[in-house]
UniProtKB/TrEMBL annotation:
The chain crosses the membrane at residues 38-54, 61-82, 94-115. The keyword Transmembrane applies. InterPro entries: DUF423. This is DUF423 domain-containing protein. Residues 1-20 form the signal peptide. The keyword Signal applies. Keywords: Membrane, Signal, Transmembrane, Transmembrane helix. It holds the Pfam family DUF423.
Length: 123
C-alpha cells in the first residue's frame, strides 16, 4: 500500500504542475481547480506512503481513507481536465462525486486518530 501511495503522490504532483502550466497558458476555466486538487492531495498520499503503518484498526482506516481520497481526486480532477480538453464529462456528477469522496476520505483519516494503533512491529 505504501508503494501505491508513493507512486500516485508522484503522479498527482507531476499532473498538478502540468495542469497548472496548462491553465496559465489557456483560458480553460477548469484546469486551475483540477491542478489545485492534485497538488493539495499529493502530499497527503506522500505522507501516507512514507509514514503509514497499515496494520491494525488505525492502519486499515488510514489505508481506506487514502484510497477514498485517491479515488475522489481522480474523479474530480479527471472530470475537470476532460471537460477542458475534450469538452465532455467523465459521467454525470463525476466532479461532485469526486469532491464528496475527498471529503469522506478526509473524515476517515480523521476518524483513524480515534482507533487503536495495533501491535508494534519488531524489525
Amino acid at each position: 500500500m505504501s508503494r501505491l501511495f508513493l507512486l500516485i503522490a508522484g503522479l498527482f504532483g507531476a499532473s498538478g504542475v502540468g495542469l497548472a502550466a496548462a491553465a496559465a497558458h489557456s483560458d480553460g476555466p477548469f484546469l486551475g481547480s483540477a491542478s489545485q486538487m492534485l497538488l493539495v492531495h499529493a502530499p497527503v498520499l506522500l505522507a501516507l506512503g512514507l509514514f503509514g503503518a497499515f496494520s491494525g484498526p488505525r492502519g486499515r482506516a488510514l489505508a481506506i481513507g487514502g484510497l477514498v481520497v485517491l479515488a475522489g481526486v481522480v474523479l474530480f480532477s479527471g472530470d475537470l481536465a476532460l471537460r477542458n480538453f475534450a469538452g465532455r464529462s467523465l459521467f454525470s456528477m463525476a466532479a461532485p462525486t469526486g469532491g464528496t469522496l475527498m471529503m469522506g476520505g478526509w473524515i476517515i483519516l480523521a476518524i483513524s486518530s480515534l482507533l487503536p494503533q495495533g501491535a508494534a512491529r519488531s524489525h
